[in-house]
Amino acid sequence: MNVTGTIDRPHTHDPQKQAPMTSSAGEPFGSANPVFSTTADANASRQNRTREMQLLQEALARAHMNERMREVDAERQAVRLVAARRMQRRAERVSLRARRALAMAVMH
Predict the structure, then answer these.
(1) pLDDT at 40 (0 to 100)
(2) Do residues 42 and 15 lie in contact, with contact meaning Cβ atoms separated by under 8 Å?
(3) Nearest to 19 by CA among 31, 1, 41, 29
(4) Which of 18, 45, 66, 83 has the highest CB neighbour number within 10 Å of its CB?
(5) What's the pLDDT tens digit per position in 41-94?
């Protein structure tokens, strides 16, 4: 394979001289844009790839934020559960104390 540049450091920065994205045998059909022969189509292809990459980044950011929101909700629910158990134990202690006080009052 004779590659003169990489994605991050292309051989040329002129979009008209760069080869458009092609699909390999391992990729599913429609995952890459077809090969264009005209320079206008190459520019459109390049813009479309840029838009696709931006949409990929947006989808990744959205998924990351959704995962983060689920983590925050789970943590919030855990904190509420701990507080509810603490209040329940406190209420049980107060109830037991009141019952003891009533029993002491009845006995005397």
Answers:
(1) 63
(2) yes
(3) 41
(4) 45
(5) 666 666 777 778 888 889 999 999 999 999 999 999 999 999 999 999 999 999
Are residues 49 and 33 in contact, defined by beta-carbon separation less than 8 angstroms? Answer: yes
End-to-end, the C-alpha distance of the chain in Å comes to 100
Q: Rounded to 10 degrees, what is the CA torsion of 95, 101, 103, 106?
A: -140
Question: What is d(CA 86, CA 27) in angstroms, rounded to the nearest whole number?
Answer: 56
> For residue 41, what are its two tokens?
């189509």
Cα–Cα distances (Å) from 2 to 5, 6, 15, 64, in that order, read: 9, 11, 19, 37
Q: How far is CA 58 from CA 21, 35, 47, in A?
A: 21, 26, 16
CA 94 → CA 61, 75, 87, 90, 107, distances in Å?
Answer: 49, 29, 10, 6, 20
pTM for the structure as a whole:
0.44
